[in-house]
Design goal:
Blueprint (H helix, E strand, L loop, with lengths): L4 H29 L6 H8 L3 H7 L3 H21 L6 H15 L3 H15 L1 H26 L7 H20 L4 H17 L5
Helix pairs in contact: 1-2, 1-4, 1-6, 4-6, 5-7, 5-9, 6-7, 6-8, 7-8, 8-9
Length: about 200
């Protein structure tokens, strides 16, 4: 006697595949054209799905952008996790520099740094940045203190300060007339800031 579970699983898998396709297509279009120059009709045509399928998964275009934003953030975290560095303070320094380097890429520039605050609003954008960055930064700071590579200090406050600093530095790069030169300035300033924190 059939329980219907295999069919239910197939339906769920198709739904997840449709959602993933919509996110992938929207991600590419948002990078190439920007959020405000991309219409939902273009997205569904390129994804080869109906408008009904789009609105089944996402309440509106902003909700789709939110999903794209999180996908980009998750990929950044995954890439950062691939680096095997034993020293937690060095891992923190490398990770922050890597984020500033990533802010030169069209995807991070457009989705996270330019359209992100404009589409989501500053508070929601800041909350998402904290979701993906704050915990990682604080964890590395705590580990660095335990290892003796960072002077003992209130790491919760320091984590907020570093997150704000790297976000502002990334925005500085993304909005600069010469992003590559701005990246060099930002990395230099970040290295000076981090260098003052390291244990002697």
């Amino acid at each position: 006697m059939s329980t219907g579970q295999p069919r239910s699983r197939q339906v769920a898998e198709r739904a997840e595949a449709t959602r993933a396709t919509l996110i992938a297509v929207a991600r590419q279009m948002f990078v190439e054209k920007g959020y405000f120059n991309t219409g939902t009709e273009e997205i569904v045509q390129e994804a080869a799905v109906t408008r009904g399928a789009l609105y089944h998964h996402f309440a509106d275009k902003k909700a789709l952008f939110h999903a794209v934003f999180e996908a980009v953030e998750q990929d950044l975290l995954a890439n950062a996790g691939e680096r095997e560095i034993a020293d937690s303070f060095e891992r923190l320094c490398v990770g922050l520099t890597a984020f500033l380097d990533a802010s030169l890429t069209p995807e991070v520039q457009r989705v996270l740094l330019i359209d992100g605050p404009a589409v989501l609003g500053w508070q929601e954008w800041r909350a998402l940045e904290a979701k993906y960055g704050l915990g990682a930064i604080q964890g590395l700071l705590e580990a660095a203190v335990a290892e003796g590579t960072l002077r003992p200090q209130p790491v919760a406050a320091l984590a907020h300060i570093l997150l704000a600093s790297v976000d502002e530095a990334a925005l500085f790069i993304a909005n600069a007339d010469d992003p590559a030169a701005a990246r060099d300035l930002a990395v230099g300033a970040m290295n000076s800031l981090l260098g003052g924190l390291a244990a002697s």
